[in-house]
Specification:
With 251 residues, this protein is of the alpha/beta class. It has 7 helices and 13 strands.
């Protein structure tokens, strides 16, 4: 990778070329901005959440502050592959969340009522309906919440689709380039320092996933982001057992 000049012309630097950073780059370049994306690996390749994520596309169970964005995303997902010109692996198989205790059931009913009031297509389902939706589940579920409009996408495929579309609109990707710190002058972020040089921009977007807090700390900013390491089970190919994405309270 060549040394990057700090005088190169750009409007916005995006740190992180995963599914979030590449989506941001796509929408910014489509709006006419000059964007450069720094990615320490290759978009959609390990190590990153955009490679290992389960890829759930869901409305229910979100923070209320995400509701408007969630509803808009749900509307756009079915046609996103056509918009980007590449597959995303999106399958609209629904999302089923089940509970196994009366306490969790009461909380779920209250949550579903709030989500319905916000305009989400979510409904309570009883045990027989759960058997119809997901016959492979155990019989311990008392009830559940089901959103037929939800589904699952393939994170690496979606990341590559956004990255390719962003580049078609003019985004410049610097891959295998690690951002080591942010640059700060007179109280504002003015760019980044990478392992190959410095780069200035009018605005900087941090979309570095697990590395975001560390980069923010390089200029004295504390962000309430915690790194978590959930488990993933990888098996040899097997017949599909569940049509909807399934989650459960307490598990």
């Amino acid at each position: 990778m060549r040394e990057i000049s700090s005088q190169a012309i750009t409007d916005i630097v995006v740190v992180g070329g995963g599914v979030i950073g590449s989506s941001i780059a796509y929408h910014l370049t489509r709006a006419g901005a000059r964007v450069r994306v720094f990615e320490q690996a290759t978009p959609g390749v390990a190590p990153s959440a955009s490679w290992a994520s389960a890829g759930g596309v869901r409305q229910q169970g979100r923070d209320p502050r995400e509701w408007l964005l969630t509803l808009e995303a749900s509307r756009r997902w079915p046609a996103l592959a056509d918009e980007l010109g590449m597959p995303t692996g999106f399958v609209q198989g629904g999302h089923l969340h089940v509970v196994e205790s009366e306490a969790d059931l009461d909380a779920l009913r209250e949550r579903v009522a709030r989500e319905q009031a916000a305009g989400m297509n979510v409904r309570m389902v009883d045990t027989p309906a759960i058997r119809d939706l997901a016959p492979a589940l155990s019989e311990s579920a008392l009830a559940g919440a089901y959103t037929p409009d939800d589904g699952q996408a393939n994170p690496p495929m979606t990341t590559r689709a956004f990255a390719a579309a962003a580049q078609r609109h003019g985004a410049v990707y610097s891959t295998r380039t690690r951002v080591v710190s942010l640059q700060r002058e007179r109280g504002r972020i003015t760019g980044v320092t990478t392992d190959t040089g410095t780069f200035s921009a009018e605005q900087t977007v941090l979309a570095a996933g697990a590395w975001t807090s560390r980069l923010a700390a390089s200029v004295g900013l504390g962000l309430p982001i915690q790194v978590r390491g959930p488990q993933m089970l990888l098996t040899t190919p097997a017949p599909a057992m569940l049509a909807p994405t399934v989650t459960a309270s307490g598990r």
